[in-house]
Amino acid sequence: MKKCPSCGGNVARNANTCPNCGKQFTRPVTMGCAVIVAFFFLAIIYTAICEQVKSPTSTSSRSNSDNYSGV
Ligand SMILES: [Zn+2]
User: Fold this and answer.
1) pLDDT for 19-70, tens place per residue?
2) Radius of gyration of the chain measured on its C-alpha atoms
3) CA of 11 relative to ligand 1 center, distance in Å
4) What are the tens digits of pLDDT across the range 10-21?
C-alpha cells in the first residue's frame, strides 16, 4: 500500500491511478531503472575504450625498453 500524494488515501502499490480521487501516478522507478541501465552501458563502453587504449601502449613501450636494454 502507498499513499496518494493528491488526497492522502491508501492506494494499491501497482495502481496507476488513485481510486479515491482519480489522480494519475508517475513512476519514478522506471526512470531510475533507465538511468541505471544507461550508466551501466556507459561504464562498459568506458572500460572497453580504456582497455583498448591501455594495452597496446603499455605492451609496445615495454617491449621497446626490453629490446633496448637487451641490445
Ligand atoms: Zn487520491
Assistant:
1) 999 998 876 556 778 889 999 999 999 999 998 887 665 555 555 556 666 6
2) 27
3) 8
4) 999 888 899 999
Residue 5 alpha carbon to ligand 1 centre in Å: 7
How much distance in Å is there from the Cα of 28 to the middle of ligand 1? 18
| Cβ-based neighbours of 68, under 8 Å, separated by 6 or more | none
From ligand 1's centre to the CA of 30, what distance in Å?
21
Q: Which pTM was predicted?
A: 0.37
Which chain residues have CB less than 5 Å from ligand 1, an ion?
4, 6-7, 18, 20-21, 23
